[in-house]
Amino acid sequence: MTVHSNSSTPVWVLPLWPAPCQNGRWNWRLQGKDMEAESVSTLWTNHSEAFVAAIAAVLAALIALISAFWASRASDKAQKLQKAALSMEVDRACLDWGHEAIDALARARGLVMSPRLHAAQGEFEAAKANLSATLSGLADRGRLFFLNYDPGQPQPDIDTAYQGSRPAILFPLILAHYELEALEFKAAGHSKALSDFLFNCRRLFVSELQDFVDPVRRNQASDRQDHRGGQARTQAMKRAAELALDLEIRRPGLLLQYHDQGILDRISDDERKRQLHGGREVATP
Predict the structure, then answer these.
(1) What residues contact 176, with CB distance under 8 A and at least 6 apart?
(2) What confidence tens digit (pLDDT) does each residue in 236-283 have?
(3) What DSSP character marks residue 284?
(4) pTM
(5) Pick from 65, 126, 201, 206: CA 20 to 30 A from residue 240's CA?
């Protein structure tokens, strides 16, 4: 093998290559000189080093291609394992958060059902304030797992995490927080409707969390955003709206006070009127 160095870049040329046939015989060109065809054994004897070098170059290229292929396969497998590990980590964190939220909702119901466990109103107010703050904090922590959807046009006056529509799973925490903020010591323990409301908040939360951490999806990619959409999301939001309307009926203006009255838009005016009048049909003037 020779090197032509007339240019800045060396060009490697095999010392032996075929030349056109003449009179039915195959000629070879060796380092710029013509030679008549020789037997295979003679060619191998005289030019074995060139053949070996060429074969070695082909084998080296083939090995490099095979190595690159398996390296790519190994990289893909490593990425899949990494995504699976991330998915499991997110599930664990989400479940830890969910456990705390379920416990807080249960304690909220216990507080309103048995206020006399606190000897004085001051103790009740302290427990209520602590639990209300816990529910509010849990709702914001939940935004790390469940992002708002349908943000629409950017709203400079609203922080980015709060633009768009809140997912249904966060409403039970927010509504329970609102309820505790408005609860008075003298009214606690005397309302089955209030107890049922907090119980239903917890039921909705558990149902939404269970759907999110479904074991089948835990083995899929780590995109953990709620992508259900369609009818399932509509049903969940309708349930959240019914709970919000229940709160509005018992606490008129409370949702407006917290700028959360938009959830009531998911309920028709006729349905809202029936609920406001105790389920009775209301004549339209």
Answers:
(1) 104, 105, 108, 135, 198, 201
(2) 888 899 899 989 888 888 898 888 888 888 888 888 777 776 654 444
(3) -
(4) 0.61
(5) 126
